[in-house]
Amino acid sequence: MAEGMENWWHHAPVFDPRDFGAKGDGIALDSPAINRAIQKAMDAGGGTVRLSAGTYRSFSIRLASRIRLHLEQGAVLLAADPPPEPTPTGGYDLPEANLAAQFPYQDFGHSYCRNSLLSGLGLTDVVIDGPGLIWGAGLVNGDYEPGHLPAMQPGVGNKAIALFDCARVTIRDINILEAGHVAILAAGCTDMVVERLRIDTNRDGVNLDCCRNVRVEACRINSPNDDGICLKSSYVLGRLAMTEDILIRGNWVSGRYQIGSTLDGSYRLIDEGPEKLCNVTHRTGRIKFGTESNGGFRRVRILDNHLQGSRGLALETVDGALLEDVTIRGLTMRDLRHAPIYIRLGARLRGPAGTRPGILRGITIEDLDAQQSFSAMPIIIAGIPGHRIEDVVMRHIHLHQPGGQSARIARRRVPEAVASYPDPECFGVDLPAAGLFARHVKGLTLHRFTVNCAKPDKRPLTWLQDVIGGSIQTRHLHNLPAALLVHAEAAVRIGVRQDGGRPFMLTQAPRYLPVSPEDAHG
């Protein structure tokens, strides 16, 4: 937030929705009164709409420029249950008329703004802050299950906060519970700060789509059924736009706990409660680029974040986008249920006719420490034939995984899955490398690479196919075969060395590259 606006809020007029008819008793419908308070603040040139302690049952609240919505301690903004039957005049606002119907390349839940609890279109200088609670109890999350209303039904809301084409936005110090399909959806927003939030929700936490100059910092997000922090670059605005100049720093993201238990402090594990998942790898709660990837991503920094009980970090461009200039540093992962890092250039090509595969290049990952409690998946870097990922640098990478994989898996042929949905499962659950699976890559640097397997593992450390140029330097290997450091096919001009061993160069690599025991152990 600009310093001038920060000072202005301290002296701005304050408006209490109770003065406009709000009850705050959890029974009366208070959104009309809150909207009247916002309108009065607009008429005054801006101001703070303050919710004091109480429960404000509401349908859609329409934010405005130069408005601060402040929830005091004990204030709960409660999303009301929608009408059971379709209605154009009751319940949540209808989805706005936009270009999404002409560009249907993203989910319904990401395509509209107005069918939300809080929404803003084309606004400037907007603040939503706490320490109160936004509880999306009446929002739908897009699951088509018995008893769930469809998100497309008129009168239904599916997001806690949606902001489209807004500038100078601050969301801070707020708690968000059960937020529908997305807790915060920002599309086409610039100069935005999201900080010190506590989000405990059914689906996505924070989604940034076609946004510029955004900082997401010091948030705690539990989202076991979908992504915690997700960058997208879709056709949601009816045009191509980049997601760029993004800082994601100092966040805690999890898929491990029952919904609501990180907010109440009980931290109840999913495995111990009614939400236990049959497939424990389904837990999500990760930081991700994609899958919607039409416009592009660049200049993104992901620093000093912690992932727990979730999938790993995913960088995906499969719909024609450029993805470049990404720095990831200081990432710790515990109780991982999937590949620690998944970098994918694919060809799903969900876009207009003629969409071509994108470009993925310039990725730096440093100081990563990952402990996998369930999955033995390696880091995955995978382009497609004719479209290589370029210039990936990884330094000081430490993996701890179960191991125990057989020689049969080490010989497994992995499908290209060119047009598949971009998740590691598209290659199968068991991959033929313990540390790194890389295919269709130009320029790969892997230095100070440590892999510790809890059980002896028969797979090679690295599995390379169509990898051109780079270097691999391992530091410490535990429970991996001494005789097979690298499996390589069509991998050329790659220097390989383990600490203390003799370096060698892959020129025209054979299928299997044996390494002498002294080279393997130093």
Automatic annotation (TrEMBL):
Q: Name one Pfam family in it.
A: Pect-lyase_RHGA_epim
Spell out the SUPFAM superfamilies in the cross-references.
Answer: Pectin lyase-like (SSF51126)
**What InterPro entries does the annotation carry?**
Beta_helix, GH28_Enzymes, PbH1, Pectin_lyas_fold, Pectin_lyase_fold/virulence, RHGA/B-epi-like_pectate_lyase
Q: Which segments constitute the Right handed beta helix domain?
A: 159-238
The Rhamnogalacturonase A/B/Epimerase-like pectate lyase domain is annotated at 18-57
Protein's name in the database? Right-handed parallel beta-helix repeat-containing protein
Natural source organism: Acidisoma silvae
